[in-house]
Amino acid sequence: MKVPLPPAPGNSEHPCLALANSIVTLPGGQRVDELNSPENATAWLVAHELAPEGTGLLAYCQLQLTDLRGHLREVLESHTKGVAPDAKSLKGINRALIAVPSAAPLRYDPSEGFSRVPSHPMTQLVDHAMAKITEDAASLLTGPDAHRLAQCASTPCDRFLLRTHSRRQWCSERCGARQRANRAYARKHDKASVE
pTM of the entire structure? Predict the structure, then answer.
């Protein structure tokens, strides 16, 4: 039975972080991938309100989403390390960012008034979801919270988070407790080897 991971700070506000964190390395090297099938990728999009209920993705659409996730992870990691991103990953994000128009047309219904509802064929659903995710990533990386973006400091966890304060380095209390236990063990082991 899969135990759900606690959400990393920033996941609920930023779909780009939620997508990047949809794969994680757990202690022991086990990888948990929330997008490991078309059905799971569909459920992920629906849960994050990026696709309507009743949607069914094909394997090709799942692959598009996991490819975008790889590009996002690389760009977010380069940002947290203060290095230039891989040109291929940046190109992949930009391709998704501009693939579809982001503006929804203005509509009028006499009973409901004005509204803006994106209209697109089901075949473009993933393109629209990816455009929303990459728009969020671009806004995060260029906005006032960019300096708060970090990667979990607890090995082997590789999730991303928005630090709530400058000292926070872990994506969850579970990772923080594991890191503190590892440091305590290392201090005790180092002290025992000196004696």
Answer: 0.81
